[in-house]
What does this fold into?
Amino acid sequence: MSRVQLALNVTDVDAAVDFYRRLLGVEPAKREAGYANFAVSEPPLKLVLFESADAARGGTINHLGIEVETADAVEEASRRLSDEGLSTDEERDTVCCFARQDKVWVTDPDGAKWEVYTVLEDVTAEAAASAAACCS
It folds into this structure.
């Protein structure tokens, strides 16, 4: 299964979770301090919320992404994007968004960041806190 990811900066993650829970009709798949994500099956969507004081100034998109099922699919996407002449930035076995992931990043002409990624496993809040900041 593939799905589009939309990552938003929000001023109040609790209010945003309440709104999106009602809008999408599903509970968050993951909820941590200042962070939540929803895994929506229909339409296929991963909605990620990052609490950020900067969200009030506009520009609420944090980044965009396409979640794929396997690390091999990330590698395939990386090769395809490179073959298309796009500059890629690969991250393997990185901790981000309370999960260990493989991913490849590209940037659109206006500066919007896109990732193609797979979640290898969820990690604890403690492990996430000790990892370098990501997706922010």
Notes: The chain has a mean pLDDT of 88. The longest strand covers residues 113-122.
